Amino acid sequence: MKLALMSDLHGNRQATEAVWQFLLEQGFDQLALLGDYVDYGADPGWVCEFVQARMAEGAVALMGNHDEAMVSSGAQGMADHVLPSLQWTRTQLSPAQRQWLASLPLTAQVGPCHLAHANTHRPGDWGYILGRMDAAASLHASPAPYVFCGHMHEPQLFHLTPTGKTGDFTPVDGVPIPLSPARRWLAIPGSVGQPRDGNPAACCALFDTDSGTLTFHRVPYDHAEASRRIQAAGLPAFLSERLLHGR
């Protein structure tokens, strides 16, 4: 099975369209969407419709913390500077869209892969995988040999050896990585809609479960137009700037 992974679309239509076209050209058997479809970007309604259309075709879609925040009174774990975009995004979604976001599952299993937005050890608390210890906690919490999470906005890859030692790799765009069956693996494909590693190109990944090969991809898109749309919507300026510089 060839599994396509998209995460943290964040209302960015231009990035989502570019990544989707890229994945269609590459070919895949199953699509997994790892949450955070809304907030930050100027087209949250369109992105919701995109995800719903993919689910109708058989895709697996999870809830992210920004998705949950569309129906919750607070913004658990979020900084104050996020609140203006959260409030604006709520006004752009229909009640049905907000309820649909809140109905999405926290985790899912696809073949040998365990999927979550934030982590697998406490998925509803939205804790970040900040390093090897957090990755190990999620790997220990899952029986699956492969774990995929979003939330971090930067491509990352961790492994756990049979003796309990953890390690990490920095993925290179387009370079297939053989995931040894002697180890267990946790991968973060990065963000489609708001990369934060200094590269404005959108992130995604493809995992071949038969060969055990994972490839991280960066997809250029019209980030200047996405940035302009954020400005036109009256959203905070740092959200527009972030797309231009990928930080």
CATH homologous superfamily caption: Metallo-dependent phosphatases
Terminal-residue CA separation = 33 Å
How many distinct domains?
A: 1
CATH top level is Alpha Beta
Q: What best-fitting shape do the alpha-carbon axes yield? A: globular
Strand content: 15-25%
The mean pLDDT is 95
Order of helices and strands: EHEHEHHHEEHEEEEEEEHH
Backbone structural class:
alpha/beta
Q: So, CATH architecture?
A: 4-Layer Sandwich
CATH overall fold name: Purple Acid Phosphatase, chain A, domain 2
Question: How many β-strand stretches?
Answer: 12
Which percent bin holds the helix content? 25-40%
Q: Which stretches are poorly predicted, pLDDT < 50 over at least 5 residues? A: none
The largest sheet is: 6 strands, mixed
Cross-sheet strand order for the largest sheet = 3-2-1-11-12-9
Number of helices: 8
Instruction: Give Rg in angstroms.
Output: 17 Å
